Amino acid sequence: MSDSFKNIVAHSKEYGYIFQSSEIYDGLSATYDYGPMGVLLKNNIRDFWWKSMVQLHDNISGIDAAIFMHPKTWQASGHVDAFNDPLIDNKDSKKRYRADVLVEEHIEKIKGKIAKEVKKAAKRFGDDFDEAKFLAEHPRAQRYQKEIEEISAELARCMNDNDLEGLGKLIEDLGIPDPVSGSRNWTEVRQFNLMFSTQLGTVAGKEAKLYLRPETAQGIFVNFLNVANTTRARIPFGIAQTGKAFRNEIIARQFIFRMREFEQMEMQYFVRPGDEMKWYKYWREFRMKWHRALGTPAENLRFHEHESLAHYANAAVDIEFEFPFGFKELEGIHSRTDYDLGRHQEFSGKKLQYFDHELNESYVPYVVETSIGLDRMFLALLTQAYQEDEVPDAGGKASKRLVLKLHPALAPIKCAVLPLVKNKEELTEKATEIFNDLRFAFDCQYDEKDTIGRRYRRQDAIGTPYCITVDFETLEDNQVTIRERDSLEQHRIPISEVESVVRKRTSMTNLLRSLNAK
Ligand code: GAP
């Protein structure tokens, strides 16, 4: 972890965003709990997703399916046979790794060597340096590039062909050492299924083995007919769901980026076969717009087209975000053909078809899916919002502050009400009165401890967009000072206007309007 990332992790603990799970027992790895601020931010992100998908689209409805599903679901979906990671153990350190990740990290190291060459040359040539030309001509950079291409191609081949022996040989040929011990004493590569299983009641046997769902999507597929029939939806239509998913990830790290228990927000859009590319395009653009609406700069987001597609997909793209540890997948948009419904039809023996009145024919619809991890979205917003800047202190001198510049509509606390000083009953009474009224409208805080400067800093650190200060003048003119978190601007406004001013600037409605969906 870089120092800046460590600071974010420490900040999120200090201010009640995220705690290590079961911390008093030294924690459970890759499992986290959301604290008082975290749960509010998480609810707001989920709310924004839900409203933008379900409320803003006439033809999308939501469901909340059970986490436990009939075990055949996971045979039909392919998870029992193919939801695996290739694992390798080091015989000396006894540590277990994902074989493909060891190779990917090796590739990253070679990329680092190219970056070093570029840096050296840029220093040498100054303003005249042309990076593209350098990369095209420099023999060592060219050699590294060729090496990367060859390793990547062999890795992709091994993964596609499920060639575990080939993957083991690749690790051996490249001389990849154990990142911890440096030993090259590896076992063979084996497949490891990522689903957690448990028993149903006290009945033993195959049918009694239940899986904790590794994705929410299957709850949507098995409810396809129920929703189609009860909503009388006409194709194209969508079903949305948010909820917990579980994966026995071997490499669970980078804080809440990869966890064993996490939450997904997924939507399956059922379309006429042949129309899927039109909708795939629509959803990739809409989902990118959703991220941009939150103020994420364009340069921190990018599309990553999948080069090798799963056998059932005919297009797939990730929206990647630049996390403190580089660009990584935040969301996936997949055109999954009729694979899932077709497989459930086969395994359940029930027809999962749609009668298209316009075409006067029945068919198994094609599906375009959007799938995003709520926790990963939380981490993206947190890392982007966390900033250190300088503000004038009480004496006018520049002083450092830590601030979470979260979008106001997602911020956990919309405004804090602060009496200027604490031991003046007239002020605390008035401030309490204002707070007790505003709490009907928003999540607010009342704070009278410490100096006003310290209280501002505390609110900045949790990302509160507005502070309302009640001073002696308030008692005369019924006006308060409203301070804005990012610009630090302060204005006097009548108490009667506080609610509408805060509402206007923190409203989810305005954020949703910026999406302009139908
Ligand atoms: N139904 C498709 C599906 O589940 P996925 O790419 O495996 O696709 C979708 O997962 C999203 O779920 C990812 O883009 C990521 O945001 C999130 N996700 C997946 N595994 C995760 C994990 N172990 N921890 C946190 N988020 C995860």
- Which small-molecule ligands are present, each listed once? glycyl-adenosine-5'-phosphate
Report low-confidence residues grouped into runs of 5 or more.
Answer: none
Rg, alpha carbons: 27 Å
Number of strands: 23
What is the share of helical residues? Answer: 40-55%
Give the N-to-C terminal Cα separation: 42 Å
Give the strand content.
15-25%
The strand order across the widest sheet is: 3-9-10-16-13-12-11
Name the structural class. alpha+beta
Query: Given the C-alpha coordinates, what overall shape results?
Result: globular
**Mean residue pLDDT:** 93
Task: Please give the largest β-sheet.
Answer: 7 strands, mixed
**What's the helix count?**
18
Structure in words:
With 518 residues, the protein is of the alpha+beta class. The chain has 18 helices and 23 strands. The strands form seven sheets. A seven-stranded mixed beta sheet has the order 3-9-10-16-13-12-11, sandwiched between helices. Helix 5 (99-125) packs antiparallel against helix 7 and helix 5 (99-125) packs parallel to helix 8. It binds glycyl-adenosine-5'-phosphate. Residues 215, 217, 247, 249, 258-259, 262, 264, 266, 329-332, 369, 371-373, 375-376 line the site of glycyl-adenosine-5'-phosphate.
Task: Give the helix/strand layout.
Layout: H1 3-14, E1 18-20, E2 32-34, H2 36-55, E3 60-62, H3 72-76, H4 79-82, E4 84-89, E5 96-98, H5 99-125, H6 131-137, H7 139-160, H8 164-174, E6 190-193, E7 197-199, E8 209-211, H9 217-221, H10 224-231, E9 237-246, E10 261-271, H11 276-293, E11 301-305, E12 315-323, E13 326-335, H12 339-348, E14 354-356, E15 361-363, E16 366-373, H13 374-385, E17 386-392, E18 398-404, E19 415-419, H14 425-438, E20 444-446, H15 452-462, E21 466-470, H16 472-477, E22 479-484, E23 490-494, H17 495-506, H18 508-513
Parallel strand pairs: 3-9, 19-20, 19-21
Antiparallel strand pairs: 1-2, 4-5, 4-6, 7-8, 9-10, 10-16, 11-12, 12-13, 13-16, 14-15, 17-18, 21-22, 22-23
Helix pairs in contact: 2-13, 5-7, 5-8, 7-8
